Amino acid sequence: MIFVGLLLSCSQHYFDRPQPIDSKNIYAFPEAFRGVWTDGSDSLIVGKFYFANIEYKKISIPYSTRDTTQYAIFNDNKAYPYDSIQQRIIGIGYPYEIRNDSIYYTTREILEAQLGRKAVLRSVGEQFVLNVKNDNQWWELFLMGVTNQEKILIRYPNNEQLAELGITPIFTNDEEDFYEVKWRAKEMDQLIGKNIFADTLLFLDQQNLK
User: Fold this and answer.
1) What's phi and psi for 32, nearest 5 deg?
2) DSSP secondary structure letters along 67-134
3) Which of 8-12, 73-77, 179-183, 187-191 comes out lowest in average pLDDT?
4) Residue 10 — pLDDT band, cuts 50, 70, 90?
5) Which residues, at least 6 apart from 173, have a Cβ–Cβ distance to it below 8 Å?
6) Per-residue pLDDT tens digits for 165-174
């Protein structure tokens, strides 16, 4: 999953097909998106056909929860990122330290994807929806835009906003929501105006020009 670390604090939302359904697939990022974007720590690299998200995340948890946390396994003085749904380790181990009854460590993830069968852009007004196919064969949606201040903004669906508009998942658990929708571009543009993409994942400055 793209931007996985940024989603640890909220549930993941999956859709049964790319959206909007009446827009054509776009297999190249527009010129305005290409370049290196950063906030001084995390970075997003966007090329013509690919993107890579380099993310650092400082994590702290109470020491008392080290054996029950869903997001890491601790062994031999290292913290290993853990996917509680697939029940497997999903990354290398990171050294940790214990201070004041808490565990502290920093993770570094490089997540790459290329536009093609598992990732496509579709336009909605002046913005773009990045549709990414997950291993479970469902799609995640990310709304992408570039501001006048040369910042890239990437947003994620908000389940509370969806629920307020009567859009409910066909299946849900503590960490995942699954939706079946058929949004056309005009309808989706209206939904965007009603703030269904309320969760900001990245808001980064441009560091180099195309």
Assistant:
1) -65, -20
2) TT-SSEEEETTEEEEEETTTTEE-S--EE-EEETTEEEEEEEEEEEEESSSSEEEEEETTEEEEEEE-
3) 8-12
4) low
5) none
6) 999 999 998 7
DSSP secondary structure code for residue 21 in this structure: T
Block residue for tokens 């993107």: 51
| Residue ranges per structural domain of the chain | 10-49+115-206, 56-111
Instruction: Examine the pLDDT at 3 and tell me if it is beyond 80.
Output: no
The residues that bridge with 46 in the sheet, in sequence order, are 35, 51
Rounded-to-integer distance, Cα 184 and Cα 119, Å: 19
The position carrying tokens 């565990």 is 103
Query: Could you identify the residue written with the tokens 């013509």?
Result: 48
The per-residue pLDDT for 209 is: 45
Contacts of 154 (CB under 8 A, 6+ apart): 3, 44, 130, 142, 143, 144, 200, 201, 202, 203
CB atoms under 10 Å from CB of 33, counted, come to 22
Residue with the bigger pLDDT between 12 and 139: it is 139
Query: pLDDT (tens digit, 9 = 90+) per residue, 80-90?
Result: 888 877 788 87
Give the predicted TM-score (pTM) of the model.
0.76
